[in-house]
Amino acid sequence: MWFRNIIYNLLFFWGSLVGVGAVSAAETSDNSQPNVLLIAIDDLRTELGCYGLPYVQSPSLDQLASEGVLFTNHFVQVPTCGASRYALLTGRSPRNSGVTRKNQAFYQGDSALSVNQTAGAQTMPELFRRSGYQTTCIGKISHTADGRVFEYNGTGDGRDELPHAWDELATPFGSWKRGWGIFFAYANGRSREDGSGIRDLMEFKVEQDEELPDGLLARQAIEKLREYKEGGKPFFLGLGFFKPHLPFVAPKQDWDAFENVEIPPVPHPEKPESAYWHKSGEFYNYDMEFEKTRPLSREARENVRRGYLACVRYTDRQVGKVLTALDELGMRENTIVIVWGDHGWFLGDSALWAKHAPLERALKSTLMIRAPGVAEAGLKSAALVETVDIYPTLIDLCQPAFRKTEYPLDGMSLKPILTGEETEIREAALSYWNDAVSVRTQQYRMTASMKRGKPTKIELYDITENPDPIENLAKSKPKVVEKLSKFLPGEK
Fold it and tell me: What sign has the CA pseudo-torsion 373, 376, 381, 384?
């Protein structure tokens, strides 16, 4: 089945690249085409009720999952924000792009996007814009918090991070005044990056959703949907929520909601033997109300997990508002909705509080797609899928007239999975981190550092036994290592 899907995609993209690349946007404004609502949620691992976790309060996302397809084995290309989003938006694997870590990939270094418009679209929203779609960015879709290039301290020229992609950058700043201010926000316009010195790990004191940035993002998205309702073009709306990214800040009600909820303890809080373990530097740089130890005490771990879940609840409520507005405006049946977590996050598992590791917890993230008339409602797919699959899937579903991309797309369309026609599309999913490549099959995850095309530091874990790196099986299962090594990229 996976081989047939490869052939399908090769034929599809050959036709799209050769046959329709020259169609102009002016010729393609057709409001019968489906709209796209892409919701990106920062640091959202599969910590949701729909993934079988009853202690999580995520009714809006759970409802969406029941109306579309929930992917239980979705893996990002890189376990860090910018590089993961680079793969999503360009459709390129790190194997070909070389982007295996850096957050500034869009505008810095050999992988930077050209400020000049190229013959083919450099990014997903640019392709849709060139096909006559109205494109709007609200929040964090690329790496920066509002689509403009500034440093954390506010310096920079503010150029578009994705050249030629958006008709409008519509992120509201509120009292935080700028992009990174709203991303690292606390109550009352304060920010981790405003020079005040505030760096609290958690804050749950505001009463209203719109006293914090994600509430403002939801309100702005609803206003934009109302504008789209009056227009005659299809739209591509990128809506990027900030939470549950650090710091853990949300309204008080979301913290209080877990007061009497029994949150399971960290299953494996001890530091593993893995060569890919790190010290969770960003997390430990925050000020904590409890003793800052490595590892954290059990009580501290429970508090931090509660904070993460409170932020998930807050974001879930904002997603719910936007989806309700979509329904009330009568736009549901012609709008594809994708919810995507840009990577996973260690919640104390393996004594880690971060991403930045080529291991299961950091590489596995949320993905759900509701495509009216296409997706089989309520389907839970265990197919191995990658973030780079989203771009070709949207082309397949929307059939934009302009399909020429600056580089070939490395993913595979998920449409056969959405319809229930296929149950798998590949044998293994690949992810990258610095010089490490991680191969995930249905049973195993093997991670190896590549030196001159040869694997070193090989770690093999049976994921069906445990998602955490407890027992390295590389030496005891050489045949499995040999089999999975065939998926590793060789020396270029």
Answer: negative
Q: Look up the CATH number of domain 2-427.
A: 3.40.720.10
Percent helix, strand, coil in the chain, to 5, is 30, 15, 50
Residues 165-188: tens digit of each pLDDT: 999 999 999 999 999 999 999 999
Domain boundaries, the chain: 2-427, 435-492
Specify the long-range contacts of residues 6-13, CB closer than 8 Å, at least 24 apart. Answer: 6/412, 8/413, 8/416, 9/392, 9/412, 9/413, 12/392, 12/395, 12/396, 12/413, 13/392, 13/403, 13/408, 13/409
CA-based torsion, 173, 176, 178, 181: positive or negative: negative
CATH class entry, domain 435-492: alpha beta
Which pLDDT belongs to residue 31? 54
Ranges of the chain whose pLDDT falls below 70: 1-31, 491-492
Are residues 276 and 468 in contact, defined by beta-carbon separation less than 8 angstroms? Answer: no
> With a threshold of 0.85, does the pTM exceed it?
yes
Beta-sheet pairing, 454-462 with 444-451: antiparallel
Catalytic residue among 50, 81, 137, 311: 81
143 a catalytic residue: yes
pLDDT of amino acid 221? 99
Instruction: State yes or no: is 50 an active-site residue.
Output: no
- Catalytic choice (74, 143, 245, 356): 143
Q: Could you give the maximum distance between any two Cα atoms of the chain, in Å? A: 63
Burial 253-264 (b: 16+ CB within 10 A, else e): bbbebbeeeebe
pLDDT of amino acid 125: 98
Q: Quick one: which H or E segment has residue 335?
A: strand 335-341
And the tokens for 467?
């998602």
Cα separations in angstroms, 387 against 75, 90, 382 = 6, 11, 15
Quick check: 306 and 201 in contact, CB under 8 A?
Answer: no
DSSP labels, 110-173 = TTPPPSSPPSSBSSHHHHHHTTT-EEEEEE-SSSSSSSB---TTS-S---BSSTTT-SEE----
Q: What is the pLDDT, as a whole number, of residue 485?
A: 97
